[in-house]
Amino acid sequence: MKHFLAAAAVALTAIGAFAQGPVTLPPSGGNERATVTQHIGTVVVSIDYSSPHVHSPQGQDRRGKIWGTLVPWGMANLGFGTCKECPWRVGANENTVFTTSNDIQVNGSTLPAGTYALFAIPQQDEWTWIFSKNHTSWGSFFYDPAEDVLRVKAKPEKAEYREVLTFDFTERKNDHATVAMKWEELAVPIDINVPNAADLYVATIRNELRNSPGFNDAAWQAAARYALDNKHPSEGLEWAQRSIDPAGGIGRKNFTNLMTLADAQDANGKSAEAAKSRDEAMNDPSATVFDLHGYGRQLIAKGKSAEALKVFQLNAKRNPGVWPTNGGLARGYSAVGNYPEALKYAKLALAQAPDEGNRKNLENMIKKLEAGQDANK
């Protein structure tokens, strides 16, 4: 009877609201409408809902009486509308509406791009989230399971007290996020994954390069680097080539663009061409002492010690006597096991160290070399 009266009260409020026409009045019960929007990479997810309070509009404290009482466990007959076994609307007044701009994975299951009513079947130990294609109805009075697009399970968790029902994005990454419904002392999460996040970024970049970014060689290089780092080698090669192509006055050869081209050529099985591009990059006038030093460090990290030493030696030839080149030679000789020679250059670099951080790093290198250990580890 209690559920019937509550449903009837909401129904009468709704009818009254509809009868008011286009005027704007406060929401029924003071349950203010709220919207939370989150970008997950290029995907946009939003939840639009009404926020009931733990305290009733009359000031009654309903703490401890929300779950299983105000919000019944399981499905309920609300005593109004066509639905006889109805889920909870996850809020108040109008439907809670979930919108995603692209296909996503919700708790491991696919939810196509679109707008949905978000319902729930609450239970003490496990909830069921329901995404229904009928998102325009008022509450769940006319809920029809035939309109379900997806149902997923979720585990409720004890949480900090929330007077007002909220949806919070508690985790946010480039390819996944977690949003949790929080009310009273309960939270129920929804895990959202974007399994093709890199594909979406590449598609966005491809379109952007047809606009003003496409007139900038740095944009082509950055696009190529992203593509290579995210397993899109063909786009990486195409865009890296455009970054050095002088056609239209856009592309230009410099250390960064040529190194990216070399990596793209390697990723596409063009090792001979990659070697030529790297050699051209290292001998390009734009290559700074720090560019060459950084590249040598990368080679050491990849286990290419002999190649790294050659780069450090080239750097010392082009930029003699400065601390990055002496420090690089120390690392290079250490990587090939020539610790006495490495120690000599590490001491030279220590005397030139520009700041306390680099000084401490070189002191640690010297201690390792004196102990007969590789300074790079």
Explain how this protein is built.
By secondary structure, the protein is α+β, with helices and mostly antiparallel strands. The protein has two domains: 2-193, no CATH class; 197-370, Alpha Horseshoe (Serine Threonine Protein Phosphatase 5, Tetratricopeptide repeat). 40% of the residues lie in helices and 21% in strands. It has helices at 2-19, 197-208, 217-229, 233-244, 255-267, 271-282, 289-301, 305-318, 323-335, 339-352, 356-370; strands spanning 33-40, 43-50, 97-100, 104-106, 109-111, 114-121, 127-132, 148-154, 157-172, 176-193. The strands form two sheets. The chain has a six-stranded antiparallel sheet, with no helix packed on it. The chain has a four-stranded antiparallel sheet with strand order 5-4-10-9, with no helix packed on it. Helix 8 runs antiparallel to helix 9. The chain is elongated. The N and C termini lie far apart (73 Å). The model is unreliable at 1-21 (pLDDT under 50).
